[in-house]
Design brief:
Radius of gyration: 27 Å
Number of helices: 26
Shape: globular
Helix content: over 70%
Structural class: mainly alpha
Distance between the termini: 62 Å
Order of helices and strands: HHHHHHHHHHHHHHHHHHHHHHHHHH
């Protein structure tokens, strides 16, 4: 039987922890009952495994009031909602269709939209259009405060525009760093950090800098700096500087990836599930990240359940980057659930349909998953033929020097050659040892090599153990075999 507060409970259970933090921080309730309920909401958002029940004896009108207050408060803080208003209002101004109430609403925001507001730059541009609209109509009463606002914040606007132009240049360099084997520290890293830290800048520019810093720190595996960045973002999201459900989803997904790289898998899983609570254009990307965490945490059935239920979402994305990421992790999930034949069939069909898109974007991720499926399905000859047909080993070797790639395709190829009788045992061990030596100075890559060995151990238990011992002895010569 549905309890009296089922609807309210369902509503608050969809709130994000940072939303609950913000609501608790800014409330000005006088009635103790409202504060008490809000504290329960806050507790449940942060501790869903130990949720407290709401008191059914309290008048339902109190719960109704609180629900309305939460909706209105979050909508007022939501930068995406504000952007929707910006676009609609700018359209009305440009079409000479703004109403008297619309004009007054623009004027009323002059005290609210300061240079630190998330969409200050776009609001400033709207105000420029509005000033032109008023000037030609000799509307001096509204023209004066409008002109005053623009003059007061002109330098902040100029600074923001210049910052975004530099952010664009930084983005191009960071993406090149991600794609090239010759990684060098970015000349923009200090600029990005300064931009994010400048609380006088608009939130949009600051968050753009945070996203690019994230990319930069992943390129160079600077996880200590990444943690500091996300600890700072954590505090920002308790305010309303960057607030929207879309931005929170992005933050939670990035935080999940960070904890995964740091091998903090329970935290990574927590943030991963938060990231997929709301569906948006990056849902498949966030879901693939969560799936990777669940697989590393050996929660194979849970991973298969959420991935299988999201197959229909594949049809709704135009991003092949996200699509290939999802498919790659779905293939791996099938393998870990002892469905290697299904994984091979799915991967083969996808490769036939989207060969060009795979090689244009995420070929290494896709073939890493596909070869794992082929190995588990004992399709060794197909691993060899794919490597030769698409020249995969040459492609992979070009990127081994970067901090992103490991020789997983090469190792699968060597193992397939050995099982097929086209490679002897000593040559297999020697080539894999030699390929690992270049990477052992990098702790992250060493961890990835151990993950590959775990994937190979079922078909070559003795050989993988010998390679593992070699790596451990190289990392610490004091270790014995």
């Amino acid at each position: 039987m549905k309890h009296k507060l089922a609807s309210f409970t369902e509503f608050v259970n969809q709130l994000y922890p940072h939303e609950a933090d913000y609501l608790l921080n800014i409330n000005q309730f006088v009635k103790p009952v409202n504060i008490s309920i809000l504290k329960i909401i806050h507790h449940n958002c942060h501790h869903p495994e130990n949720a407290q029940a709401f008191d059914e004896k309290i008048d339902k009108r109190t719960y109704s009031y609180l629900k309305n207050w939460i909706v209105e408060t979050l909508e007022k803080a939501d930068v995406d909602k504000f952007y929707e208003w910006l676009l609609e209002t700018e359209k009305l101004v440009m079409l000479d269709a703004i109403s008297a109430d619309g004009e007054r609403e623009i004027i009323s925001k002059f005290k609210l939209i300061t240079p630190s507001h998330y969409y200050f730059l776009r609001f400033y541009e709207l105000t420029q259009h509005f000033r032109d609209y008023l000037l030609i109509r000799v509307r001096n009463i509204f023209y004066k405060p409008t002109n005053t606002y623009l003059e007061l914040h002109e330098q902040a606007y100029i600074k923001g525009v210049a910052t975004n132009k530099k952010l664009n240049r930084a983005t191009e360099e960071i993406i090149r760093q991600h794609e090239t084997p010759l990684l060098q520290q970015s000349a923009f890293s200090d600029f990005l950090h300064q931009t994010f830290s400048d609380t006088g800048l608009d939130g949009y520019s600051r968050y753009r800098a945070a996203v690019r810093l994230t990319f930069h720190y992943y390129n160079f595996r600077e996880f200590a700096n990444l943690r500091s960045l996300y600890d700072a973002l954590d505090e920002e999201f308790k305010q309303n500087t960057f607030y929207s459900k879309r931005l929170l989803s992005n933050y939670y997904s990035n935080r999940a990836m960070m904890h995964s790289k740091l091998n903090e898998l329970n935290k990574a899983e927590h943030y991963g599930f938060l990231s997929i609570r709301q569906k948006n254009s990056d849902y498949l990307f966030y879901l693939a990240n969560l799936c990777g965490v669940l697989l590393r945490n050996k929660k194979y059935e849970k991973a298969l359940k959420i991935m299988s239920s999201s197959i229909p979402d594949l049809k709704n994305t135009n991003s092949f980057y996200n699509k290939i990421g999802f498919v790659s992790f779905y293939i791996k999930t099938l393998v870990y659930n002892n469905k290697a034949k299904n994984a091979v069939s799915y991967g083969s069909t996808f490769l036939d349909a989207y060969k060009k898109e795979i090689f244009d974007t995420r070929w290494h991720l896709f073939f890493s998953a596909f070869f794992q499926a082929l190995l588990n399905a004992e399709k060794y000859a197909k691993i060899i033929s794919n490597c030769n047909r698409y020249n995969l080993l040459t492609k992979e070797n070009k990127f081994i020097e970067s901090s992103v790639y490991t020789p997983i395709l090469f190792w699968y190829f060597e193992v397939a050659m050995f099982i097929e009788g086209r490679q002897n045992r000593e040559n297999l061990l020697q080539t894999i040892r030699e390929s690992s030596l270049k990477l052992l100075s990098n702790n992250y890559k060493t961890g990835k090599l151990f993950e590959i060995l775990d994937q190979l151990k079922d078909c070559l238990p003795a050989e993988t153990e010998e390679i593992r011992s070699f790596i451990l002895k190289y990392k610490d010569p004091k270790l014995t075999s």
